[in-house]
Amino acid sequence: MTHIPHHERSVQAILFDFDETLATLAQPAADLAVAGANAAAAVLRGAGLDLPDDFEVQWLKALEFAASKSVQEQDEHTADDTLAFLVQFYGYVALDRKLVRQAVDAHFAPFIEASILLPGAHETLTALHADGYYLGIVANHNCDRALQRTVRKLGLHDLVDVVLTSQTVEQRKPKTKLFEVALSYWDVAPYQAVAVGDRLDEDVAPAQDFGLRAALLTLHPHPSNQQAARLVIPDASLTAWDSFLPLLARWQAEDAAGADDFWADRLPAAPPPLTPDFDPTTPA
């Protein structure tokens, strides 16, 4: 990648989505959900809660319902709150929040263990980090602890400056708050940033709405993109991580050339001639 001094770059910061952008799961999500539900129930029963035999099924249904509400309202319904609300139906009105967190952590443990980086993601972030770019992760997630632990497990925590989830900012993409909060971390303007994600509706559209350039990365195409493509046009479309660094270099070079040439066709070749009787002290 052509080196441009940091203070001269038009792009200063890059914000990444997480799931199916930087990482994916090595096992089917449905299998991991069952394993997680069993683990969460074991924590609660081990603490003395008398739960029905179908608790695991009800817990997964509650998570699914909360997720649909989160998408509909664009405000995150957290996994902790969902579990605390569910157990109230079984008579545990004021369950200790520490126990709630332990059960939720047990639920997400299989997902964390099964998380793997997508090809080229670590190499790309390593190169960007070494070149001095500000890097951040902005992701919809109903448990911030789980995503932070996944980022650490995958070895990305030393490469990014900030990891923000919809739980921490209390709003989901396609609202723009995740981008706003992340950029404020570095005091970077939206036009100085690029977003990368796998979804047109939740990654590209809100980034562009907030003033960022946005690249669609489709290693595993999301089914929502087919419909969203009628309304959302990314600034670039990529099918592999190894295409991102050349794209960024091209944008930087084009922006630098554009800055140099901006006035080239706007200035006259010479100032207009003065009339012989011109007197600057006398109004026209």
Features:
284 residues; alpha/beta; six-stranded parallel beta sheet; two-stranded antiparallel ribbon; 11 helices; 46% helix
Instruction: Look at the helices and sheets and give the structural class.
Output: alpha/beta
Tally the helices.
11
Radius of gyration: 25 Å
**Fraction in helix:** 40-55%
Strand residue percentage: 5-15%
- Spans of 5+ residues with little confidence (pLDDT < 50)? none
Strand arrangement across the biggest beta sheet:
5-4-1-6-7-8
Order of helical and strand elements: EEHHHHEHEHEHHEHEHEH
Reported for the largest beta sheet, the result is:
6 strands, parallel
3D shape: elongated
| Overall pLDDT level | 91
First-to-last CA distance: 56 Å
Secondary structure: number of strands: 8
Descriptive overview:
The protein is an alpha/beta fold and 284 residues long. Helices cover 46% and strands 12% of the residues. It has a six-stranded parallel β-sheet, with helices on both faces. It has a two-stranded antiparallel ribbon with strand order 2-3. Helix 10 links the parallel strand 7 and strand 8. Helix 2 (55-73) crosses helix 3 (79-88). The longest helix has 19 residues, at 55-73.
